[in-house]
Amino acid sequence: MNILITGADRGLGFGMAQQLLQRGHIVFAGQYMDDWNELKILKHNYPDRLHLIGLNISNQASVEEAKRQIEKVTDELDAIINNAGVNGRRTDDEPLKQNYDAMLAVYNVNTIGAIRITEVFHDMLEKGREKRLIFVSSEAGSITESKRTDFYSYCMSKAALNMYVKILYNRLHPDGYRFRLYHPGWIKSYMGGQLSDRGELTIEEAANRAIDYFFDQQVDENQLVLRGYDGNIHPF
User: Which of 84, 51, 48, 81 is nearest to 66 (CA)?
Assistant: First the structure.
């Protein structure tokens, strides 16, 4: 399969790219941090099946240029994994006051970024065999389960993403599109800016579980759920 994955530089995105390559797929890895070398090293191991694509999903011109680069290799995609995301800023010391510019920046990546990718690459996905649209979300976007008293931007952006995916599912599922909406769990990853030793899953474990679910042929395609890394379903 031809698979595009955003935010593949490090963390879960890199782990998933690695898993996909090990399973024989062709991967177009969205690369945001040109000075981060993990993808470049991985390219040496998979020179023919890993394509590094410069991609900033918060920028429309960057997304359109990424498409032009991929079109030099193929005109079809089988799956898109919308993985890129940012966690925003904690607000413990200011329980009500928000930094609006910072909030908009989080929305621009976590919500609008996924929309940009879906819209720009839709015609390539239409030509693919699988037509899989995959979105890495979070239980933090669940209104029903919300218990947090901070991280407004992150939680709200994921709730908005979930609604977008639900509407998109209503629109495209009748045309044969397959959807996955996923909560990857607490990962020992780079969401705080540096590799954390706190979490329930290593990057490799989290990536393994995610890819297993994304491409599981036994999943009921006639309902959209927010499924967690542990198999549990989270209410929106």
Answer: 51
Positive or negative, the Cα torsion across 190, 67, 159, 206? negative
Determine contact, residues 117/170, Cβ cutoff 8 Å: no
Burial level of 102, CB count in 10 A (0-12/13-18/19+)?
A: middle
pLDDT tens per residue, range 33-60: 888 889 999 999 999 999 999 999 999 9
Q: CA-CA distance, 81 to 31, in Å (whole number)? A: 13
User: To which residue do tokens 């006051």 refer?
Assistant: 97
For 53, the domain range is 2-234
Quote the CA–CA distance of 94 and 87 in Å, as a whole number: 17
For the entire predicted model, the pTM comes to 0.93
Say how many domains are in the chain: 1
| Contact (Cβ atoms closer than 8 angstroms) between residue 4 and residue 70 | yes
β-partners of residue 4 are 28, 80
